Amino acid sequence: MSPRERCIQAIALAVWATAVLPVQAQAPANPTPMLGDEGFSPMNISKNGYLGIDLGQARYSTGCGFGGYRCKNPDLAGRVHVGGLFNNYVGIELGYVHMGSAERAGGRTTAQGLNFSLLGRWPMGSWSAFFKLGGTYGRTEVTADDLSGLPTGLAKGWGGSYGAGLTYEVARSSALVLEWERHDFRFQGQGTREVQMTTLGYRYKF
């Protein structure tokens, strides 16, 4: 089984496992007020923040050069982030993303950057759905064989980003997250190209 297939299988198994966890039949005697009950306030960020780490796979849309060179996406990509909620439906996130190293034209193509996103959230009990919209300041590097015809070098700059996913709250301070996201990066001689990433992650709420 390839690393890609093992990663997909692990994500599917984790999501299935969380879906069959027992749900408590009764609510606590003194339930914590929902964020939405507190209203929209920047002060909520300090009380409803979280740290997260996500691992998965990325897919580059960059060129592979000429001559039949190997063209393979990374086996592992990921990100770390910190975020917070203004109320039960709106929040922000700041994170670092690394899309892994893709084999291209006898060399390597990498992309990484800092991302800032606005978060929209829809709670559904222990589950919640969300979408994100923001921007990424990225840094890319491309190396390749001289005969491949693929431009090489470093590039930096801003690009848009967006994504969506599902969150499952395992406990009061822990959650699992399945997420897909897309970031636009600048590549030397290739302009702006998208890099997509699908991850399974963990959040610790503080």
Describe the structure.
- The protein has helices at 3-19, 44-47; strands at 49-60, 71-72, 77-85, 90-104, 107-124, 127-142, 153-171, 174-187, 191-205.
- Helix content is 10%, strand content 58%.
- The chain has a single domain (3-15, 44-205), classed as Porin (Beta Barrel), CATH 2.40.160.20.
- It is mainly beta.
Overview features:
206 residues, mainly beta, Porin, 8-stranded antiparallel barrel, 2 helices, 58% strand, elongated
Which structural class fits the helix and strand makeup?
mainly beta
Give the tally of structural domains.
Answer: 1
Q: Percent of residues in beta strands?
A: over 45%
Taking the sheet with the most strands, its summary is: 8 strands, antiparallel, barrel
The outline comes out as elongated
Helix-strand blueprint:
Blueprint lengths: L2 H17 L24 H4 L1 E12 L10 E2 L4 E9 L4 E15 L2 E18 L2 E16 L10 E19 L2 E14 L3 E15 L1
Antiparallel strand pairs: 1-3, 1-9, 2-4, 3-4, 4-5, 5-6, 6-7, 7-8, 8-9
Short description:
The chain has 206 residues and is mainly beta. It is built from two helices and nine strands. The radius of gyration is 19 Å and the shape is elongated.
